Sequence to fold (156 residues):
Amino acid sequence: MCMSNDSPLEIKASLTIQRQAKDVFEAITDPAKMTNYFISKSTGIMKEGKTIHWSFPEMEMYFRIRIGKIIPPEYISNYWNDIDGSETLVEINLFPKPSGTFVSITEKSRINDEAGINWLRRNTEGWANLLACLKAWLEYKINLHKGAFDPSQMPI
Fold:
């Protein structure tokens, strides 16, 4: 399928985690849990209507997260400020399955231009990394994020 430059870009990442939706939901919304596998700091727990800031161990900057709608333990939405200052909507859906919880993340949208394609590449890697780190932590208590990035080698 050929994509025209008029089509907005959208990120999708998903993975099944062998834990109940409640556990996955808490691991995403509670910074005390999230610091075990993804972020280094947060200014608070994710609550509907609240604005928090996240920092990552590989970057010396904070990202503003404006929390949208939350439906425990199945849906989390937030507006994420990217490194270029633009704000995008992130939706996380949690679907209980016999084998655990299917987690689907969608981030939308950006214009299909060079900046948008760079955003698509960078943030697709980021969301896939979050899912892998979340799975490793919840299933095996392994922190994949620790030591995985050399800040001097970051392309940002």
Observations:
- The CA atoms of residues 130 and 141 lie 14 Å apart.
